[in-house]
Design a protein that fits this description.
The complex is a heterodimer of chains A (490) and B (461). Chain A is an alpha/beta fold and 490 residues long. Chain A contains 23 helices and eleven strands. Chain A has helices spanning 7-17, 59-67, 69-79, 105-113, 118-129, 133-136, 141-150, 152-169, 187-207, 219-226, 233-236, 246-258, 263-271, 288-292, 294-305, 318-326, 335-352, 362-383, 385-391, 403-412, 415-427, 446-455, 471-474; strands at residues 50-52, 87-93, 172-177, 211-217, 240-241, 276-277, 284-285, 398-399, 460-461, 467-468, 480-481. In chain A, strand 6 (276-277) and strand 7 form a beta hairpin. Chain B folds into two domains: 10-115, 2-Layer Sandwich (GMP Synthetase, Chain A, domain 3); 123-459, 3-Layer(aba) Sandwich (Rossmann fold), CATH 3.40.50. An eight-stranded mixed β-sheet of chain B has the order 8-9-7-10-6-11-12-13, sandwiched between helices. In chain B, helix 4 crosses helix 13 (434-452), helix 6 (196-204) packs across helix 8 and helix 10 runs parallel beside helix 12 (361-376). The radius of gyration of chain B is 25 Å and the shape is globular. Classes of the chains: A alpha/beta (490), B alpha/beta (461). Chain A binds chain B through residues 309-317, 320-321, 324-325, 327, 331, 370, 395-396, 398, 462-464, 468, 470-471, 475, 478-489, and chain B through 99-101, 104, 311, 330, 334, 339-340, 344, 366-367, 370, 377-385, 390-394, 396-398, 400-405, 449-450, 452-457, 461. Chain B: One of its GO terms (cellular component) is cytosol. Chain B: Residues 142-179 form the CobQ/CobB/MinD/ParA nucleotide binding domain.
Chain lengths: 490, 461
Amino acid sequence: MTTAMGAEEYRELLSAALPEATDADTLLPNLHTLFTPDSHRVALYVDSTVVRGGRGVGKTFWYRSLLDETLRQVAAEEYSIDRLRRLTVSPGYGAAVEPELYPGTGVLRQLVEERVRPYDLWYAVLLTALGQSELRDLPDWRDRVAWVRSNPGAAERTVQQADRAAQQDGITHLVIFDALEHLHRVRAQADRLVGGILELALAMRLGTRNIRCKVFIRPDMFDGALLQFPDASKLTANAASLTWSNANLYGLLFHYMGNHDSEYAERFRGLTDGWETDAFGRRHIPPALLRGDERYQAEQFARIAGPYMGANYRKGNTYTWLPNHLMDGVEQVSPRSFLSALNKAVAETRGTYAGHEYALHHEGIRRGVQIASETRVREVGEDMPWVRLAVDPLAGRQVPIDQDMVTQLWRDARLTDLLREEAERYDVGGEEDTVVRTGPRYPDDPDRLIEELIALGVMRRRRDGRIDLPDVYRIAFNIGRKGGVPRVAG
Amino acid sequence: MNLPPAPVRFDDARPRALAIAYDVAAEGMEVLLVRDVLGRFALVVDDRERDVPADRVLAWSERLTSDLQRYAADRPLLRASGLFSADALLGSERAQPAPRRVPAGGYGSVRLLDNTVVGEDWAQVSTPTAERDGSRTHRTALYGFKGGVGRTTATAVLARHLADRGHVVLVVDLDLESPGAGPLLAAGARLPRHGIVDQLVEAAVGNADGLELVAPSGYAPRGGWGELWVAPARGRGTDECPYSYVDKLNRVYADIPGMDFADRLAAAVRTCEDAVAWEGESGRRPDVVLLDSRAGIHDIAAVTISRLCDLALLFGADNSQTWGGYGDLFAAWHSSGQARAIREKLRMVASMVPDSPQRPMSAYLESFREHSWECFSLLYDDDVPEPETGRLIPGAFSPSLEDDSAPHHPIPILFEPGLVGLDADSAPGWQDRAFVRAAYRDFLTTATLLITADPQSDEGP
């Protein structure tokens, strides 16, 4: 039996195992980091066409895992989804530049300006993935789309043949789409392009047996695309969501801790009995209790952080405190925020409370959450600069706040003009052209703008109609909260 | 034609008086605003160190008279230098700092002294101290603004749960106007001959020795060395003469020389605790005391919550009576400057929570939580960015709606029709029934953790 680990040993393990980077692109899936929460199983069904998820919940993570043969086998094994073993997967769109497989940002903008029908465009992408030889000979996407338009019969035959062949071979062609916020900076155009993808995905699902699309998408973008073609609602029925329960988040933490290459990780596995090694012998699978039992997880976390956020239970529980304070307005916690808050908490404890009896001091955890909030706000600002423009005028105010007050502040700050200028800034083109962001759908309509912010989880509406902000945004934006007791300075 | 000005009413008077007090303080004076039992205000200006020009005194005095009308005292402006007992008045511990923050530099302070007939105990928050040997008796009040929310039943279930966990538990029935916890708990056992009311009337005439105030309940805790004791409001009495409960009740609220009602009640609870050690086989003092407080804004509730306990579980249903009532209560704590001291002692309990397909628990609790937050926010810090920097000052006690350890966050007890009007004597073992266990599961787990934790310090988190 392994002996218990001390505070410093847990700290060593945590700071080694937790990812430091907060950028999505540097948190790549590999055999060590691939964690398979039960709640994500449905998202990996081949027939789950639409997979919804906010920023940082793992859309890109699964997109890349599906493209990787080894990781796909791991997922097939652990989720016990046999169909995942019999797939050929190709990217239909993604953040990576793959001009052969799908058009890049600049090309897309040009095609949109030329009023190309989005459906035809994605049809061309699909046919390319299926290996249509005539298309492959045309280097330019403009020509490929034109070919699709003028050769409907040949296009259909390609699909039919690929479908039949796949059926005979017992495989499914899966074309997957990600990073849709990069499609087009003008929200209405992005919506049309997404609408085209979904229309094609639906056509394949209804018309073929062995050709499927999977679209990883932010919920607000999915809702926007639903307005584009009426049949899209048929896709809502089996849409999956990438959500993270508290048990999932802690399961991820323990997975990271148990999968690090160090003696500490080995001791940690010994302390939490029941780990298994997968068929490849290269990764460790946490026992079911550690993956998903909140009580057991809370006990384990208490060994690391102590049970309470202070002297005792009345100060709050460490186990629930962390996710509660990272939750956005739609009650979602990004796993990346969660892990980076913990990482910061270790550093803070080491710096200020090194003698503490636990690996994490509750003040360190508070600090970690604060940093994670700031990171979250920065990320959202990168994805959607307009969110920052819209929330900034509320700085110095207090929530809950009347909706009329919000719209008044926006008028005072001339938000509509600011949003227009922001959009124009990217129109100029140049270097920033590769980083396309989606603007708000209704920059001129404050009430709908609020609805968009609510859908994104930045704001939430109280039952009495007033507007509130979850702490994860409120604190980083320096927005106060109404209370009755005046603060005493110092 | 000129209409006569609208009369100043009670509620208008306080803000008007405060406004004048702040203006006088802005001229550099230390001031104390005194409200008498009828609600009339007088402003005491501390001129002992600093002279005040006569014309200022006259101006302030006239303003008090004209702004406050009937709510100005006969002598609305008093100078400390002219008072016989200035030190006692200005140094009174009952004076509270003014609710609004007074800016630093050149400003005098503003304090408020409220003289009331009853209900003053709401304004005197303190937490019981540890015993001399360092051990602590955890005192928890169970209170409902409205009666009939299942508070007494919950007290009984909780007491048994704690005794099962090895605690020596004493339940004191302070619902003197409608005693109930005693019989519910003692089921099957004999109640003591005397009750809390006997202790109060006998102690008033120095005759409390030899009373029989506590009795072990009929409940045998499973495992461990737990004990469950009851101190009922009403005793069993004797066969010799009739037990005149109402006559006693009429006499318990009187103040006696050197002891006001709050002191008397505190002494009574203490006597019951001592009696457990004295009468019990184990000789242990209770380590958990549950005070079943009466409902409403009443002096017993005021003393129980503000002074006797270190934790108050506030019962309520999600309706306007609950929130209106707690709103008034919290406003009183707020205006008497007690918000900071009381807020971390409190925790909301959502009792009789429905859970059916038509009305799922989650939706009910969500609505409850928002109303509760709205009410409690009066006691929370106003977390406002600093004007100079535009940034928030860290460390505010201003929990978010979702914070599951915050005072407003409800602990649910499911509605269980089988428990309405329960007669414990004819339903032995009722607390073991599966539906009872299910209804109280969250409550028992959370309340046990809260009760056995040490009281909060005065500082925020």
